[in-house]
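stuck on this:

***
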Amino acid sequence: MTFMAKYKEQVADMLEANDTMFRSFKELHDKYEEDPKKWQEDFNIEGQKVMRVIQKWENMLCGKSESGKYGVFSSKLSEKFWNEVRIHFPKIDFVGMKIN
């Protein structure tokens, strides 16, 4: 049995549970990487849906430890979770941006 960090497991579970949406977004994400100006509007629209799902899963992972003595741990856990998401979607932070 191999050990997988909880945040990595959470990202893997999230991707699996929403496979169709994330596969579709990955295709769009890759097009966006190639030509941001052309794909920005579609990337933002679909990205908002994806962000809601990611934030929901982040909250399930970190929500219980945010208050009290585990608050610092929770922010570090959140950061690790998002870094794992960025492995799959390096441009995720560009959702909502506008390019002139």
